[in-house]
Design brief:
The chain is α/β, with parallel strands linked by helices. It has helices at 3-16, 41-57, 71-83, 96-108, 133-148, 163-175, 194-206, 222-233, 248-256, 267-284, 317-328, and strands spanning 30-34, 60-64, 88-91, 113-116, 128-130, 152-158, 182-189, 215-218, 240-244, 261-264, 304-306, 310-313. Helix content is 45%, strand content 17%. The longest helix is centred in the last third of the chain and has 18 residues, at 267-284.
């Protein structure tokens, strides 16, 4: 038995017994992961997790969705997965309001849907696999206060349409309540466009004499590289940048000392565990997928699977990169 297969079986004994399978015969099954920005390193890592689980179970799998941040195109990809009668669907929700009805339609059609990375809690999705985003915000907020020495103006880059980012924002704000001299002076909706982060950072620096921004907080993955690039291009030192996720560009900026820290998630784990849990749901043949399991003390599924997060800074970035290369080969 390989190490990975042994690890999966050990998870069974740790509390996921009803949901993870150490291997049965599978045929004619197709599991689809739907997201946006699917070419970014984050989703490539998730794709690797999906592929490993699919290969182990000998089922078909696919990652689909737009290459850019396009919630409408993601909706079309989700609708296509439903129309093709996917065996199960993992979806990272770019816009919870936009995708709710389509998630509910999939459930009504008997297709199990699990959200990963970004949730749609008002939908009939079965459960959420991902990061405790409130805790991520608290982790980042504490590090921000430390870097600012408890005083400074902060600009935040986010996308308010995504519930996971709002939870991170809530965590930051709660963590900063004990630091009255730290002020969040700007909250910028980048709308999934890195150019907005780049241009807005440039504008902030141009207005430096009127309003000095001491720190930049990036609640999503793409703005950290843009902020760091602007600061580096202009030779500006002494600003604090707290990023999100562990794409290669972000890690390089940490090595160079431009980004103070980032918070890494586990997209590989989200997709790997997600496919296996969907597969088990399929084989359980539940009479109805739209039961109110969140309120059921004897529900056969969890409400939330926390895949964890970790702070990466200059003290551990090299070890993080080495570990990533050993897993992905890149």
């Amino acid at each position: 038995m390989t190490y990975r297969r042994l690890a999966v079986c050990l998870l069974l004994a740790a509390g996921l017994v009803p949901l993870l399978s150490c291997g049965n015969e599978h045929s004619g099954e197709t599991y689809i992961l739907v997201s946006v920005n699917i070419k970014v390193p984050y989703w490539q890592s998730a794709g690797a997790g999906l592929a490993l689980a699919g290969q182990q179970l000998k089922v078909a799998y696919a990652v689909t969705g737009p290459d850019t941040y396009d919630p409408s195109a993601e909706r079309q990809a989700l609708q296509s997965a439903v129309s093709k009668k996917a065996t199960g669907i993992l979806v990272s929700v770019a816009d919870a309001n936009l995708l709710k009805d389509d998630i509910d339609a999939a459930i009504k059609a008997g297709i199990p849907v699990v959200t990963i990375d970004s949730d749609a809690p008002a939908s009939k999705r079965l459960f959420f696999i991902g990061t405790n985003n409130f805790q991520v915000g608290q982790m980042g907020g504490k590090r921000l206060a430390q870097e600012l020495k408890n005083k400074g103006n902060v600009a935040v880059f986010t996308m308010p349409s995504q519930p996971n980012l709002n939870e991170r924002m809530r965590g930051y704000l709660e963590a900063l309540e004990g630091y009255p001299q730290i002020k969040v002076t700007h909250i910028v909706d980048i709308k999934g466009d890195p150019r907005i982060a780049f241009d807005t950072t440039t504008q902030f620096l141009g207005n430096d004499k009127k309003e000095h921004i001491d720190a930049f907080v990036c609640l999503e993955a793409i703005s950290g590289n843009e902020v760091a690039t602007v600061l580096d291009n202009n030779g500006i030192k002494g600003r604090v940048v707290i990023a999100m996720d562990a794409d290669p560009a972000t890690l390089r900026w940490i090595q160079k000392g431009v980004i103070a820290a980032t918070i890494s998630q586990k997209p590989f784990t989200m997709a790997f565990v997600g496919l296996r849990m969907l597969d088990n749901l399929h084989h359980e043949n539940f009479a109805a997928l739209d039961s109110d399991w969140a309120r059921d003390s004897f529900a056969p599924v969890p409400a939330f699977v926390d895949t964890g997060s970790a702070l990466v800074d200059k003290s551990n970035v090299d070890a993080f990169i080495a570990a990533s290369k050993s897993l992905t080969g890149k």
